[in-house]
């Protein structure tokens, strides 16, 4: 086996990974101890990357050859690459000549490499002659970009991860760091351990795992961020904690802002934000008196119709106190996607040009035209993400080329998005996975390479460029995104502008990167001192790193000089804006969206693994216990959640972390895992059926974080629960075949489960559904067959009068003992919990299998102790559940840190990726320690305790 260093394809931390492989197959992954971003650590998502690259997964989920449809709705058929690319070039050229360049829209992704992005940007702006290229980074970081540019003058986060260790106060706002960027949370915990005086302030409407670890939690009202920051600035001024000398020497515009914040005294700020005046005073004092204050922020600020103002108002606090350009101080936006930064660097958005040049600047347009060797680049800003799809829905955009993203799940207002995909004349989807929702709308599918196969660079949150290296050849006929774009660009140029074929001479990603590098000379992100060779020899490097520099700059603006016309930063005099959609009598709840700990975006990759559903295995909406009671609901009851755009049905769940009037729903749940239909029989399409298309007028980033909704109980009394072990090489394909069945229910969910593949090479699937009346048995028959519940080894019980249908698939081992392999409960699903216990226990049944078909106490008597529902999983890496943790803690005395250390040593939870550490700390706080004599250390727990609760053990550096 060989190890190839590369970079994780998930969040913007940019963790280094070592890919274990034999040249043809990826067999393992571990964190790269030499990478400066993560020093060997990986979260649950990164630590399971090799499982998503398994042969069985690739064969069932990857797009392995070009495919096209002759008619929408038909199944696609395989074509060769030349036919596919010629078809694309012909169709795009025809639309270009008939309707003009602006009739073509290209929508790309923050998961592309910088080299991929560069070619697409040049293709659209240099060949097609339009600026209609945008990226899903518009949904991610565009408000942070606009906020930096409005205040500091350039899209350049001024901080580095090393600042975590130097900060005395950390202000986390608009980020659940513990779940969204878990490796950075580990670094922050290390910093506080080394500097016990470090204080954390967390501003978040919910009491998240991050907020629970804070010294001060500011549970502000949704949308009141600008009021909070203005109120803090009012207090900083009143307490004499601003830096007048810094303001005078390095900024402009403070007088107007100071006048505005006069209107935000503590009493008024408390009214607007819902916070206590005492907490506001404490936060201002900690922020202003701290020798170094670091702000960390992400989508809670960005994904808002006033996202630019929120970013700028936060940066105001740093400029007013001089908390910038010093170790441990500064406003630090945390990037959502792995290469959102790289896409911005090459100008891969509708309003940008290469090397952070502005499309609106004539000099910048002329520079890019000279660099590319074209007479000009188009002057009119392109349509941003929401504008592009709205134009397609309205018929103005005729062709959509979608690359490495899944807008049929991820964009807000799904009804509009799907109308756009249906109305567009020609839709190209360039994708690695054939299972995304958007693939169903494609006229042409182009197979692309993915992690473990790609070659190029990415840039992380701290401006650090890392190499992405291939470990194995492309799967099937997949090609690199830059190579597909280059080949199609040449064919397209031959049809619409033959003289521009020479714009695309690229044969390697390095040749593209070198052209990009040359475009940065003299710019704020100058990387002329870098090369592939230097990145190979010296590892990841930060920009700026101009020619001749010994190293990149880890911290910006230390000299107080900013990339503005006068060299001064600008205070942003912004007014608080109301929510784009405030709750009212008809839609009284504020719906907040966010992340799950172990899932990524639309789950096209992480959603393939049952183990990553162990922490959160059922789509549900969280409500305050008081709201649950007021609505007459119990945990697990189904509710209809409706906004002005759509509705979905799913279970409700009580959450102590929410105040009354708010609800929380993870962003990940799309039609791939959650479906159903409304009263009119129209399909429901996941979380983004609810979200609003309203966007920030400056950044054009949509308000994905908040929508006004109504929540009401829904009566769907007929239920189905089916769970089955299936061979690993079949399970995901079976999942795809089962998906159409979801439309038969008023609510349905289809997910993997288990620790795949297990010792017997199996993967679990769980299908749940609910309907107002029983679903016709003939319609369900294919599902039973796919789950292996129609063969001779199946035991079945039916009672038509009682509308009951139960079935079991059992298997005899070599000793003749019977084990449960699958079950089907239709009508009455009350036995699901204890049957699942038997299924996952993988042990012989304690009695005759046919008795499990019986209702009531007879079946329960058979299973005995196994009838206890499984305790929630806390640690994904080692499958450690809450009951094991509580049992172990009950015998661990000492300080909280000593108890946590004993827990980790005994059960190993928290010892690998660390994502579960916040939850472990919470359990340490709530589980009482045993009495301990003074001066006597707690006795170590024995390994037998761990063995009695854990179902498997793994090595210290990775997963099995």
Automatic annotation (TrEMBL):
PROSITE patterns per record: 4FE4S_MOW_BIS_MGD, MOLYBDOPTERIN_PROK_2
InterPro entries referenced in this protein's UniProt entry, alphabetically: Asp_de-COase-like_dom_sf, BFD-like_2Fe2S-bd_dom, BFD-like_2Fe2S-bd_dom_sf, CT_Nitrate-R-NapA-like, MoPterin_dinucl-bd_dom, Mopterin_OxRdtase, Mopterin_OxRdtase_4Fe-4S_dom, Mopterin_OxRdtase_prok_CS
Pfam families: Fer2_BFD, Molybdop_Fe4S4, Molybdopterin, Molydop_binding
Record key words, sorted: 4Fe-4S, Iron, Iron-sulfur, Metal-binding, Molybdenum, Nitrate assimilation, Oxidoreductase
Coiled-coil zones: none
Region feature (Disordered): 932-960
Biased composition (Pro residues): 932-941
PANTHER family: NADPH-FE(3+) OXIDOREDUCTASE SUBUNIT ALPHA (PTHR43105:SF9), RESPIRATORY NITRATE REDUCTASE (PTHR43105)
Annotated protein name in UniProt: Molybdopterin-dependent oxidoreductase
The species this protein was found in: Ideonella oryzae
Upper lineage: Bacteria, Pseudomonadati, Pseudomonadota, Betaproteobacteria, Burkholderiales
């Amino acid at each position: 086996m060989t190890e190839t260093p590369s970079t994780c394809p998930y969040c913007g931390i940019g963790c280094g990974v070592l890919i274990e492989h034999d040249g043809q197959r990826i067999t393992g992954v571990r964190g790269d101890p030499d990478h400066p971003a993560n020093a060997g650590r990986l979260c649950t998502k990164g630590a399971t990357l090799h499982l998503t690259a398994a042969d069985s997964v690739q064969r069932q989920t990857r797009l392995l050859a070009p495919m096209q449809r002759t008619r929408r709705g038909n199944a696609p058929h395989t074509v060769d690459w030349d036919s596919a690319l010629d078809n694309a070039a012909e169709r795009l050229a025809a639309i270009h000549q008939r309707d003009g360049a602006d009739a073509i829209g290209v929508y790309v992704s923050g998961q592309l490499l910088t080299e991929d992005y560069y070619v697409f940007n040049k293709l659209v702006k240099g060949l097609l002659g339009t600026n209609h290229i945008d990226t899903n980074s518009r949904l991610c970081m565009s408000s942070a970009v606009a906020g930096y540019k409005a205040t500091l003058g350039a899209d350049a986060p001024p901080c580095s991860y090393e600042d975590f260790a130097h900060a005395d106060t950390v202000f986390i706002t608009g980020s659940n760091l513990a779940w969204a960027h878990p490796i950075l949370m580990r670094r922050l915990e290390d910093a506080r351990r080394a500097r016990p005086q470090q204080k954390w302030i967390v501003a978040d409407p919910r009491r998240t795992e991050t907020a629970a670890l804070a010294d001060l939690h500011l549970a502000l009202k949704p949308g009141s961020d600008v009021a909070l920051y203005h109120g803090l600035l009012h207090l900083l001024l009143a307490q004499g904690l601003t830096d007048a000398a810094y303001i005078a020497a390095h900024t402009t515009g403070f007088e107007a802002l100071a006048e505005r914040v006069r209107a935000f005294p503590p009493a008024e700020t408390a009214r607007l934000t819902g916070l206590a005046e005492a907490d506001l005073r404490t936060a201002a004092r900690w922020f202003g008196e701290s020798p170094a204050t670091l702000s960390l922020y992400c989508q809670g600020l960005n994904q808002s119709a006033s996202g630019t103002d929120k970013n700028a108002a936060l940066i105001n606090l740093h400029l007013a106190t001089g908390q910038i350009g010093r170790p441990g101080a500064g406003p630090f936006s945390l990037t959502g996607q792995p290469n959102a930064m790289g896409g911005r660097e090459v100008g891969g958005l509708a309003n940008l040009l290469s090397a952070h040049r502005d499309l609106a600047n004539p000099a910048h347009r002329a520079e890019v035209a000279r660099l590319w060797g074209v007479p000009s680049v188009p002057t009119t800003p392109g349509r941003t993400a929401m504008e592009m799809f709205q134009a397609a829905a309205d018929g103005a955009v005729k062709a959509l080329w979608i690359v490495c993203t899944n807008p049929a799940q991820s964009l807000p207002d799904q009804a509009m998005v799907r109308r756009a995909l249906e109305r567009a004349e020609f839709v190209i989807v360039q994708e690695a996975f054939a299972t995304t929702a958007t693939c169903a709308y494609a006229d042409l599918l182009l197979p692309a390479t993915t992690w473990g196969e790609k070659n190029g660079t990415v840039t992380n949150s701290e401006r650090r460029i890392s190499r992405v290296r291939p470990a194995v050849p492309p799967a099937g006929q997949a090609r690199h995104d830059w190579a597909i774009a280059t080949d199609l660009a040449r064919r397209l140029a031959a049809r619409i502008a033959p003289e521009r074929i020479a714009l695309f001479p690229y044969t390697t990603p390095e040749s593209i990167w070198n052209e990009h590098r040359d475009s940065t000379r003299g710019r704020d992100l100058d990387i002329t001192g870098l090369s592939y060779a230097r990145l190979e020899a010296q590892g990841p490097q930060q920009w700026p790193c101009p020619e001749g520099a010994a190293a990149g700059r880890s911290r910006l603006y230390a000299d107080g000089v900013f990339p503005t016309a006068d060299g001064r930063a600008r205070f942003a005099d912004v007014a608080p804006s109301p929510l784009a959609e405030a709750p009212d009598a008809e839609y009284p709840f504020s719906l907040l969206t966010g992340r799950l700990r172990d899932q990524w975006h639309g789950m096209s990759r992480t959603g393939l693994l049952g183990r990553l559903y162990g922490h959160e295995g059922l789509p549900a909406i969280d409500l305050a216990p008081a709201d649950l009671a007021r609505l007459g609901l119990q945990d697990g009851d189904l509710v209809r959640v409706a906004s002005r755009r759509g509705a979905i049905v799913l279970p409700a769940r009580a959450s102590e972390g929410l105040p009354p009037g708010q609800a929380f729903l993870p962003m990940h749940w799309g039609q791939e895992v959650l479906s159903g239909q409304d009263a009119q029989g129209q399909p429901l399409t996941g979380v983004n059926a609810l979200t609003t298309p309203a966007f920030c007028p400056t950044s054009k980033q949509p308000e994905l974080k908040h929508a006004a909704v109504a929540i009401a109980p829904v009566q769907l009394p007929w239920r189905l629960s089916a769970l089955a072990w299936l061979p690993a090489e079949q399970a995901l394909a079976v999942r795809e075949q089962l998906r159409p069945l979801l439309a038969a229910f008023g609510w349905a969910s289809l997910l993997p489960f288990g620790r795949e593949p297990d010792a017997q090479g199996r993967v679990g699937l769980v299908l749940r559904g609910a309907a107002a009346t029983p679903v016709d048995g003939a319609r369900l028959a294919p599902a039973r067959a796919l789950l292996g519940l129609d063969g001779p080894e199946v035991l079945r019980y039916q009672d038509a009068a009682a509308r009951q249908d139960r079935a079991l698939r059992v298997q005899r081992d070599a000793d003749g003992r019977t084990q449960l392999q699958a079950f089907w409960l239709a009508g009455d699903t009350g036995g699901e919990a204890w049957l699942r216990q038997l299924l996952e226990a993988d042990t012989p049944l304690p009695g005759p299998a046919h008795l499990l078909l019986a209702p009531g106490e007879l079946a329960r008597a058979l299973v005995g102790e196994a009838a206890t529902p499984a305790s929630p999983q806390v640690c994904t890496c080692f499958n450690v559940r809450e009951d094991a943790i509580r049992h172990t803690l009950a015998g661990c005395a000492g300080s909280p840190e000593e108890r946590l250390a004993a827990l980790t040593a005994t059960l190993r939870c928290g010892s690998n990726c660390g994502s579960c550490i916040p939850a472990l700390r919470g359990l340490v706080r709530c589980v009482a320690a045993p009495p301990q004599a003074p001066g006597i250390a707690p006795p170590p727990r024995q390994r037998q305790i761990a063995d009695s609760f854990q179902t498997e053990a793994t090595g210290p550096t990775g997963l099995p």
